[in-house]
Amino acid sequence: MSTSSVPTGRGRLAGPLPFPDAARRQLADAQLRVNLRRATHTIRDKRARVVAELPDWEQLRLAGSAIKADVLARLPELLVQFEDAATRAGATVHWARDATEACDVVTRLVRQTGADEVVKVKSMATQEIELNEALERAGIHATETDLAELIVQLADDEPSHILVPAIHYNRHQIREIFAGRMGDAPAGLTDDPRALAEAARLHLRRKFLSSTVAISGANFAVADTGTLVVVESEGNGRMCLTLPQTLISVVGVEKLVPTFGDLEVFLQLLPRSSTGERMNPYTSMWTGVTPGDGPQNVHIVLVDNGRSAVLADEVGRQALHCIRCSACLNVCPVYERVGGHAYESVYPGPIGAILSPQLTGVTASPSASTLPWASSLCGACYDVCPVRINIPEVLVHLRQSVVDAHRDRPSPERTAMQALSWVMGDRRRYARALRAARRGSAPLAAALRRRTVRRLPPPLSGWTAYRDAPLPVGESFRDWWRRTR
């Protein structure tokens, strides 16, 4: 099911529904939960096996976290260094403050080539800024070449997982999508995975050979060399990065690493955490333009889109360490039951619950202000994060931010708490209130023959929806002490 984004100028980061309402809608889909459980457990079990092979895994996590902390501490300096290196290598670097500017830059660059169709490498950044929609409005069709992204695009749906965007579909559903939406799907297409992959391969091959413009993101950007890095499993990215004449890469400013040597750490952390592989089947790196080899027009669009605001938060900034591995999604009990669409953002799961509200602002939408509560705080996400993002810590921090943002607004709960504070602020008032409560509750307790109330009228029904309300005891501790001592 497609979800609508709330216009924020930041792209697909916020939705119109509070998380509990969006989650309740997804919980009605029993097949979704079956699909999610099967897929997430398969991926996380693979990850656990390959991680156990490395005796220095925790040291690698510490190194990755330290590198990312260093990047954020020197981000302006490293961005200038990257721009200088990439420009010397023949690339053109553009800067975009938000999603609107980024889409305008990319649209202008594509129009300058005269192309009305582009091929795309899987990219969270381009989904975040809603680039496909912006290009479509300009009369330019973007074809997703990642298999899972292609499935979602053909279904007119939205991704529900960072690594496996079509995780909410099983192979029978994918066969129906291909047969109904892929114009050149083979006759008699079955739901055999090999047959489905071959159908997608044939469909995309024609796109690769005819497109003159490609759009990518980047997993990493090396500051001292101006190099961009994309890791993938299918080879579609390699086709996009080498065949077209023009390559446009949209990169979040936090994707930097200081030196080429720092990649060694992340090229061990990322594949094991994401796909459960020891290394990615395809690791593509390119630095500017090489005459006669690959794209001859290389553009890099560096996007902020709220990241500077996240960087300013000493607790929340650790969300910018994220390398988009999706390990936290695969162990999250909440995500496993509701899927990615309930988060109403391109970033679902635990990392989305802390990243999306910070990029837009916690009061930007109903989803942004409720996502920090989309967690049981079990800590499994922190345990598996390859760069040690303390997601539970940030969730609690953001919950406080939401409360602080609404602190001055009148509410029945706040009024009740203020009244209770006044009563409990004086020992005599508190004692009188307890005596009055006991006298008032005695007839009710006698009628119910118990000391708890299971249902209270609104607005107190919010309490008894999940727990019983105890009635005051017949004798307080103070009265008992006075009587017996």
From TrEMBL:
Pfam family, one: Fer4_8
Positions of the Lactate utilization protein B C-terminal domain: 400-483
KW Endoplasmic reticulum (keyword) present: no
Keyword Ribonucleoprotein in annotation: no
Domain LUD: residue ranges: 81-303
Chain ranges of the 4Fe-4S ferredoxin-type domain: 319-389
SUPFAM superfamilies (alphabetical): 4Fe-4S ferredoxins, NagB/RpiA/CoA transferase-like
Source species, domain of life: Bacteria
Annotated InterPro entries: 4Fe4S_Fe-S-bd (IPR017896), 4Fe4S_Fe_S_CS (IPR017900), FTHF_cligase-like_sf (IPR024185), Helical_ferredxn (IPR009051), LUD_dom (IPR003741), LutB/LldF (IPR004452), LutB_C (IPR024569), NagB/RpiA_transferase-like (IPR037171)
Protein's name in the database: Iron-sulfur cluster-binding protein
Record lineage: Bacteria, Bacillati, Actinomycetota, Actinomycetes, Micromonosporales
